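User: Design a sequence. Structure:
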């Protein structure tokens, strides 16, 4: 066994291909409609990871390029969240594609939590001012915010679509539009944080998260890996909670 617990070589490549095939076949057997999405997403991920490895190696010591790369990450995440919101379950509300306006509004809950937290961590000296520290931390927090925004926004809209009568009833009782909509959709949107909460509360019992595994494979002591994982998990919850609240408010205000 080498420096890692996973042997990198031809067998690993075969395993990756098999994972994709198994996922696609399972999706096809289950008639999910995702059998083409799984291989395409996997190929895209492979290409993006290769590019990421090349880019990080080049920009690591150039802070202006790190900032530019972070902006690209924010734009991509905002478009992805906006695209998820455009594919709502109500056919009348569904859009063919996200608009620039949608992406700009999504950028608020997607980018605001990671930027604020990472800026604070850098000021406190927790995150070092270089690409190898900033980009992974921003990426972890940004990816979680993106998922929360897409999920919370869709659930809030679905709840508002199915409970239009309750919104109208609240308006007839004197509520203004935003509080009436917020009262109806807040609880449904809050369920978007459940996966993050479940993963955090089961760390070490059910799930062995990526930050922990990555550090251990890299040679760090288990207690160091545990501290890092706690940092990542609590940061994810903080970003997710902010993203959830901002998204719900923006949906209630008809901004998303």
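Assistant: Done.
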């Amino acid at each position: 066994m080498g420096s890692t617990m996973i042997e990198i070589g031809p067998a690993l490549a075969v395993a990756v291909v098999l994972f994709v095939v198994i996922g696609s076949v399972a999706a096809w057997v289950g008639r999910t409609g995702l059998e083409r999405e799984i291989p395409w997403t996997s190929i895209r991920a492979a290409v993006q990871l290769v590019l990421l490895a090349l880019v990080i190696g080049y920009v690591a010591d150039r802070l202006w390029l790190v900032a530019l790369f972070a902006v690209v990450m924010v734009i991509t995440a905002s478009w992805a969240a906006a695209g998820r919101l455009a594919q709502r379950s109500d056919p009348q509300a569904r859009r063919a594609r996200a608009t620039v306006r949608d992406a700009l509004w999504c950028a608020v809950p997607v980018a605001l939590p990671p930027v604020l937290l990472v800026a604070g961590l850098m000021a406190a000296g927790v995150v070092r001012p270089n690409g190898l520290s900033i980009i992974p931390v921003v990426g972890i927090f940004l990816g979680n915010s993106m998922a929360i925004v897409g999920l919370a926004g869709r659930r809030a809209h679905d709840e508002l679509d199915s409970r239009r009568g309750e919104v109208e009833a609240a308006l007839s009782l004197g509520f203004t539009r935003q509080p009436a909509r917020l009262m109806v959709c807040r609880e449904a949107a809050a369920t978007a944080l459940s996966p993050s909460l479940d993963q955090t509360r089961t760390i070490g019992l059910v799930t062995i998260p990526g930050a922990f595994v990555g550090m251990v494979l890299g040679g760090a002591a288990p207690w160091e890996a545990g501290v890092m994982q706690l940092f990542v998990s609590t940061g994810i919850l903080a970003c997710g909670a902010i993203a959830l609240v901002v998204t719900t408010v923006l949906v209630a205000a008809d901004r998303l």
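The mean pLDDT is 86. The radius of gyration is 21 Å.
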